Amino acid sequence: MKQLRHPKADEITLAGVLAALSDPVRLTIVRTLEAAPGEHPWGDLDVGLAASTLSHHLKTLRQAGLIRHRKHGTRCYVALNPDFDRVFPGLLACVLRLADDQNSLPPSDSP
Q1: Are strands 40-41 and 67-72 parallel, antiparallel or unpaired?
Q2: Which of 49, 62, 44 has its CA nearest to residue 3?
Q3: What are the residues whose beta carbons fall under 8 Å from the beta carbon of 31, sequence distance 6 or more?
Q4: Distance from C-alpha of 91 to C-alpha of 81, rounded to nearest angstrom
Q5: 12, 13, 49: which is closest to 29 by C-alpha?
Q6: 91 to each of 8, 11, 21, 33, 44, how far by Cα in Å?
Q7: Which of 52, 50, 67, 55 is nearest to 16 (CA)?
Q8: Which residues contact 42 (CB under 8 A, 6 or more apart)?
Q9: Is 45 helix (H, G, I), strand (E, B) or coil?
Q10: What digits encode the pLDDT tens for the residues 84-102?
Q11: How far apart are CA 46 and CA 36, in angstroms?
Q12: Contact yes or no for 76/4 (Cβ under 8 A)
């Protein structure tokens, strides 16, 4: 089975990564993969989306260099890209921590 193209380490850009992480669904996917390291069948990602929509979000994360996507027969597996932290050390941990902090703030009274 033909494998998907993944960006090389020098092709991963900060703008692409931040754009990919700006979507709450993709942030949830990355948080899920961070919490349980290793490779996971992408169908096991419980984000409440149709398979086609999940596939779109995984493609965006793969093209940004955040995840690795491997096909094996009819199954697809995903994991965080092990090269990512070498390209942007600490960035993913910082983004996830800040997102968690923001979610724990009380709602703003601003209109």
Answers
A1: unpaired
A2: 62
A3: 96, 99
A4: 13
A5: 49
A6: 18, 16, 11, 15, 26
A7: 67
A8: 54, 55, 58, 69, 76, 77, 78
A9: coil
A10: 999 999 999 999 999 887 7
A11: 13
A12: no
Q: Is pLDDT larger for residue 105 or for residue 31?
A: 31
- Which pLDDT does position 3 carry in this prediction? 73
Quote the pLDDT of residue 80: 96
pTM: 0.86
Structure-token pair, residue 100:
């968690």
Give the tokens for residue 101: 């902090």
Of how many residues is the chain composed?
Answer: 111
Angle at 13 between CA 12 and CA 19, to 5 degrees: 115
